[in-house]
Every structure is written in structure tokens, then in C-alpha cells.
Amino acid sequence: MTLLTHDRYCDEILFQTDRLRAAVDGADLTARVPGCPDWSLRELVVHVGGAHRWAGEIVRTRSAVELPDERVPDAEGPSGGDPAALGAWLAEGAAATVAALREAGPDTAVWTWAGERRTAFWARRMAHETAVHRADAALTTGAAYEVAPDLAADTVTEWLQIVSFAQQSGDPEAAELRGAGKSLHLHATDVPGAEWLIEFDEVGFTWRHAHERATVALRGPMTELMLAFNRRQKPDEGGLEVLGDSGLLDFWLERSSFG
């Protein structure tokens, strides 16, 4: 599985934002979000819109350092509880961020919180941020949810890279993801080549694309696999199968967080 193009990530930011906006249109903004139980639906949307604006401002200004929240214009969302106003604010921020990303192209040097210090990082990160939080909104409101298979697959790959970065950075939960001789296999049954093998040792874990026997396997449709791996649904929901040591899968899911 390969990375998508810069333009495709930009397109997905806009598309996923539009679908997120549709999912919350007319909804109760005070409803709690199952995947992010500390947030209301409004707080979820403001988080996504604020993230768009923050990343967009980094790209627009070519910032070489992390920008504090107070340096990001209009990041707190509109006042009041009007879903239409919130949706318009969300769309406006996504459009501005995509315009900045397209103008900069993928290779402009900017600050990121990971090792890759270029604008391509933010296009990819915001596409997946929006797609996963769109799932949160859909699960809250009952809206339909599906993503393109290649985007869903890349979401899994990016999440593995994020958790690996978290482990290398000393995140205490990610640091526990170790255990010699154990392995976890992810297998999307509807997307050729969408397989990942996570192998644990005494120090931590590594991963690669491979079809091999493992201590535990999670297999099923790509969208459902992505949702479960991002802890948005249970591993035995949505037509997924858990084969082998389910405790190892639970061990991973409980500790694969960041921030």
C-alpha cells in the first residue's frame, strides 16, 4: 500500500469535511460522542475545525515552530448552538487550509510534531483527522459511514506510524507495547494487499506489510477494520473476526493512543 498524492489528500479534507458537516446538520450538538466521551458533538466539530485552522496557519505562514492556539484566527468556532453556523464555519476553515496546502505543494518546509518537516505531513494528517472524526460524528448521529478503501488503508498505516513515533518519544502507554515472540496481523478482506503485521520484542514493536500467521489476527472489511483499529468500534463488530489471542489485540488497543 502506498501513500496517496498531495492533491488527493487535499480533496479528501474537503470531502470528509462536507460529509462531517452533513452528519451534524440538524443534530443535537449537546449529544455525547461515544468515541470521544469527554466531548459533545459541538466540541468534536470545533476540535476538527480548530485543527484545520491550526495546520492551515502553520502552512500559510511557513512556520518553523509550533504555533500557540492564540495565534490561530477564529479557531474557537461560532458562538451559540446553531448547527448551520457551525457547519459553515467548519467548511470555511477546511477550504482555507486546503487552499494553503495546494499553494504550498507537498515539499515546503514547515514545523510538524513528527520527523517529517514538510507540508505533505499536514495534508495527510488533516485528511485522516477529518475522516476518523467524521466517523465519531456518524456514530453519534446515526449517519451512514464509509470511506474509500485506499484512504481507510492509509489511515491504518498512518496510525501505526503515529503509535511508533509515540513509543520512540517516550509516551508511557505506547512504551508498554512490547512482548517478545508475539504478533498481530491486520487483514482487510476486500482490499488486495491491505495487510499489516505488527511484531513485538523486548524493546517495543515494529510493523510491515505482510501476510503471515500471528498470535492474533483481526480480519474483515477495510472500513470496519480501520474503525476498530482506531478504537471507534469493537473488534467483533461490523463483520470483523478476531482469530487467536484476543487478549493481545485488547492489549494493543488499550495502549495505542497518543497525546
Automatic annotation (TrEMBL):
Record-annotated Mycothiol-dependent maleylpyruvate isomerase metal-binding domain positions: 16-138
Name of a matching Pfam family: MDMPI_N
Entries under InterPro entries matching the protein: DinB/YfiT-like (IPR034660), Maleyloyr_isom (IPR017517), MDMPI_C-term_domain (IPR010872), MDMPI_metal-binding (IPR024344)
Domain MDMPI C-terminal residues, every copy: 150-250
NCBIfam families for the chain: maleylpyruvate isomerase family mycothiol-dependent enzyme (TIGR03083)
Protein name: Uncharacterized protein (TIGR03083 family)
